[in-house]
Design goal:
- The chain is an alpha/beta fold.
- The chain contains four helices and six strands, in the order αβαβαβββαβ.
- The strands form two sheets. It has a three-stranded parallel beta sheet.
Length: 148
């Protein structure tokens, strides 16, 4: 057996439907497209969500919500998480640039310090925003918060 001798098993392949090759083929005349109408014409293609002229679903549903173009998305950092980071990396100063270098947050991420969890270590933290309870807890341990 050689490559030039290979062929599919008997009955494994079928010949394609030869449309518009004369009346004798049984697929001539209108070429399986029916008579007249938009779908019988060449170049016809239906829009993605076309429902035959019925009002499409996305237009029947009500508009809802609002995307504020001026929204500032902060990445929340709780005191408990900051304590874990400080213990793991043995640091006393945490800022967004350092967090990005460690791969904890993205380079341009804005960070907000939140007051959930316990802080046992003195930390100097630089962030974009900070809650009042978090600021009080950090200053209680002798640390400081600097806002960018």
């Amino acid at each position: 057996m050689k490559l030039h001798n290979l062929k599919p098993a008997k009955g494994a392949t079928k010949n394609g439907k030869r449309i518009a090759r004369g009346q004798g083929s049984g697929k001539g005349g209108t070429s399986t497209r029916g008579h007249k109408g938009q779908k019988s014409r060449s170049g016809y293609s239906r829009k993605r969500n076309f429902e035959g002229g019925q009002m499409p679903l996305q237009m029947r549903l009500p508009k809802r919500g609002f995307k504020n173009p001026n929204r500032v998305a902060f990445i929340p950092m709780n005191l408990g998480r900051l304590q874990e980071i400080a213990d793991k990396y043995q640091v006393e100063k945490i800022d967004p640039q350092w967090l990005a270098e460690q791969g904890i947050v993205h380079k341009n991420a804005k960070i907000k310090i939140l007051g959930s969890g316990d802080l046992a270590k003195k930390l100097d933290i630089t962030a974009h925003a900070c809650s009042t309870s978090a600021k009080e807890a950090i200053e209680k341990t002798g640390g400081s918060v600097n806002l960018v």
